[in-house]
Every structure is written in structure tokens, then in C-alpha cells.
Amino acid sequence: MESSLKQMHAFFNPRSVAVVGASRRINKAGHVIFKNFAENKRRGVFKGEIYPVNPHEDSVLGFKCYPSVTKVPGELELVVIVVPAIHVVGVMREASSKKVKAAVIITSGFSEIGNNKLENQIKALARTTGMRVLGPNCIGVYDSRTGVDMLFLPETRVLITGDEVVATPRPMPGKIAIVTQSGAFGAAALDYLTGLQIGVSKFVSFGNKCDVDEAEMLHYLLYDKETAVILLYVEDIKSGRKFLEVAEKVTKKKPIVALKCGRTKAGARAAASHTGALAGSDQIYDAAFARTGVFRAKDMEEFFDVGKALVMQPPAAGKNVAIITDAGGPGVMAVDECEMKGLNVKRFSEEIVQKFNKLKKAGKLPRFATNLNPVDLTGSVTSEMFELASKIVFEDPEIHGVIILGLHHTPALQEDFIDRVAKVASKHEKPTVACDIGETEMALYTRYRFDKLGIPSYFSPEDAARAMNALVKYGLHLKKKKCLKAYLERFLKTSNK
Ligand code: COA
Fold first, then answer.
1. Beta bridge partners of 179
2. How many Cβ atoms are within 10 Å of 341's Cβ, its own excluded?
3. Which residues have CB under 8 Å from 137's CB, separation 6+?
4. Among 20, 26, 33, 54, which is best to mutate for testing ligand 1, by the most ligand atoms less than 8 A from CB?
5. Of 42, 90, 233, 339, whose CB count within 10 A is highest?
6. What is the whole-number distance in angstroms between the Cα of residue 30 and the centre of ligand 1?
7. 239-272, pLDDT tens digit by residue?
8. Which of 19, 28, 210 to probe ligand 1 with, by most ligand atoms within 8 A of CB?
9. Three-state SS for 48?
10. What is the CA(83)–ligand 1 centre distance, in A?
């Protein structure tokens, strides 16, 4: 492993970690962070040594407390700094004299409020000592497998009534990495993904990025075996050339979905006061993402929807999309969205049309079903009809991706249509996405079951079409770079397909 990667490893899987500012007071950030490590160590998930550092305490949560980093016995790989800004440089100096490999500075109060002088001191220390630094003004790292958890946001919260509710859940292990300039949005993302039961490999909040930036993090994640898809939230990218080089390399192996905010003048001003970001021209970002194959999501919803699609489904080998539905209107909605995104929903070939006509004649599909693309099986649909139509469409060599709009409201449709369609889809390399509209138990069940079977499902036909668009765009990018075959081989080895 390259030595720079090895050093970055200390952020995610350190052999020893000190939490500087570990407090006994339960509402303090330093308490929550140390408690996370202590609990994960007790559960046997975090395997390294942990040390609380605080000059005012002898012990924290049963662990011997040290007055400074220099007093911690033996080697120390990582420090998490949770003390007010004025103390940070002093702690960093002590850490460097202790030959600490990496430091995460949670503390706010640096360039984001114009305190560039203090941030420059940290930058200089990182440069001269070689210690890698994440932050300041960040929420650090969460690794779902090693038990590194620097999130100072408690998992549960006690309401005024005394009831305890889940507040900032930690997601289950999975293949999506989140790399974010905004800690708050990152925490919200964990909440959202946990709710959707989508697993996360690693979470990194890099805040003001005084040393480690998004490009370096992407480079690290390229080699991370647990990560298959990267979700990146940024407000600015300072090292443009480095980013272009790294992103180009990463997207040949792993998709990157970017949510870049600060598009408008006022948005850019808000970004500048949030993380000190200099947003730059939005068109430049558009061009840079397009050139490197990074998918730029238009908003938060598309960001998550696309991440979910890319982690569950293979990319498409072309632009031709088929839609199978039992709902005419939503079918039209999906067609419109596909076409507006540049996908083709073209009429099926005569051979395919004849296959459908044969089934209609045999009474296996409704006589009044339409079958030119979309296939509308109408309100008389049954599970078997969905299965039969899927077989024809998936076997059509001209089709590269399939959207299943299986609205549950029709009377003869049983929920087993989901399993039947998924079984057909699993025999083909073509990406599949699904949609059911509604918020009833049945709608939730339908989407949940599709998700469980590895077919990402969405709330609206447009969302499903946009998810398919990302699968097509990524497929075309891989094709252009001559990497599609290799990607598909890797993907199919580890998926339901
Ligand atoms: N070494 C070790 N411990 C030290 C210390 C030092 N040099 N200096 C102070 N401490 C101790 C304090 O005594 C205190 O422990 P105590 O509760 O036992 O007294 C603890 O460290 C924390 O210091 P305190 O002064 O109480 O600060 P705080 O907990 O109120 O706030 C931060 C500290 C870092 C959380 C706060 O400054 C901050 O930056 N908050 C915003 C964080 C944020 O939002 N980050 C970005 C998210 S996107």
C-alpha cells in the first residue's frame, strides 16, 4: 500500500486513539465521542486502545484519563481534538511531538468565521510535521466496520416527556461512502440512509479541509474494498487539478455522485460563511464533473436516489429504456422524464410487438393492453402478467434498462408480482428500477420488498426515471473509457444479479 494511503488508514482503523477534551459531562461533544469509542470497544467492535485526555479528570467512563497527549503511554496513532479553538494549536504541537499519524479537529472557529490566522497555523503544522489533519470544523469519521465513531451527535435523545427516541442513528454496514464538507448534512444523510435501510461503509466529514481534502479522500476510497459508491457533498473544490485527476481515476472503478451547492450568488455567499468556501463559477463545476464522469445530482433527493440505484444495480450498456406498468398516466410521466434526460423510450421492434400480441390472443395478457413501450398491462393486471411481460422485455437485445411501475392499487395484482419480476430481472445484466406511488402500508410494502430484492424503488415515476438516467449515464461513461465490461464483472460477483 502507498505510504500516503497507509497514513490515511489511521483515520479509519487506528491501533490507538486519544480523545482530547473527553469530558464526564454527558452533554459535551467530547463526552459523546469518547463514549462512542468506549462502547464500541466494550462491544468488541473497536479493537484499538482508547485514551481520554483532559487535565481536569482522573478517569472518564472508567478509563484512566491523561492530562495531555504527551503523557499517554506508548504509541498513539490518532487524536480527536474537541477543545475550544484557542487550545487546538497547543494540542497539535503535543501530538506532533508524540509522532501521532493523524488528527481530526472537530472544533469550529477557524477560517469559516474569518479566523484564517489560526487555521494557517494548523496548516503549517500539518505540512511541517507530516501529520495528516481532517477538519477543523467537522464531525470527523464514522466507520461501520471498525467501530471508529467520532460523531458527537447522540444516537438517541430523551424527550421532555421522558421518552427516548432515535435521533442520529448509525447506519448498518454497507457499500456507500459519504464524503461531506457539511457535517450537519452528513449527519442528516446518515439518518436518512438508516431509515431507508441502506448501509454505509465509511463516513467522512472534512469541514474546512485545511490538510486532507475531498480529492485525497476519494483517492483513499478508490482502494477501500468496502466502498462501491461514493456520495460527495461539496461547497467548493480548491485543488481543482488534483480533483480532476483523482475523480477521473476513481470513476473508472466506482461511481461518484456529487451534490455541489452554492450555485447562486446568495448560495455562494452562504457557503463562504459556512465553511469558508469560495464557490467559483457553477458552469466550471458542471464541466469538471461531466469530464470526469462524476454524476452531479440536482438536489438532495436525487443525490440519495442515485446513490441507491448505483449501489444496487449495474450501469446500463446503452440508452434504450423499456417501461412496464399497470398505470397509464404514471407510464407517460416516466416516458417524459426519460426522454427529457436524453434516454430513448422507443417503440419495440415488430418481433417484440408480435410476442405480446400472441400472449394477448392466448388470453394471457388483457386484450386491451398496450404493448409498444410503455407496456400498459392495465387495471386487469395479475402477477403472472407482470412476469410474462418482463420476460419479453428483458430478453429484447435492444433494451438496456427496465423501469417497473407496479402500482399496487389494481384488484387482481398480488404482492408476489415483485418477487416474480425480480426473479426475471436477476437473470439479466440490465439495470432495473421500480416505483409504486402512495404512502399506505401497501405502497410502503411494495417499495420495501423491491428494495429488499435489490431493485431500487422510488416514490414517483420521475424519481425512477432519474435513477435510470444515472445508471445509463454512468454506463455510457464506463463504455467511453472502455471499462464497462470489467466494472460489470466486478459488480455481478457481489450483487443479487
Ligand atoms: N486538553 C484537554 N482537555 C482540555 C483542554 C486541553 N488543552 N482544554 C480544555 N479541555 C477540556 C475542558 O476542561 C472540558 O472538559 P470538562 O467538561 O471536563 O471541563 C473539555 O475539554 C471541553 O472543553 P470546553 O471548554 O468545555 O468546550 P466545549 O465542550 O463547550 O466545546 C467544542 C468544545 C470543540 C465542542 C466547541 O469549541 C466547538 O467548536 N463546537 C462546535 C463544534 C462543531 O460544530 N463542529 C463542526 C460540526 S460540522
1. 204, 232
2. 17
3. 105, 107, 108, 109, 110, 112, 183, 207, 208, 275
4. 54
5. 233
6. 6
7. 889 999 999 999 999 999 999 987 777 777 777 6
8. 28
9. coil
10. 3
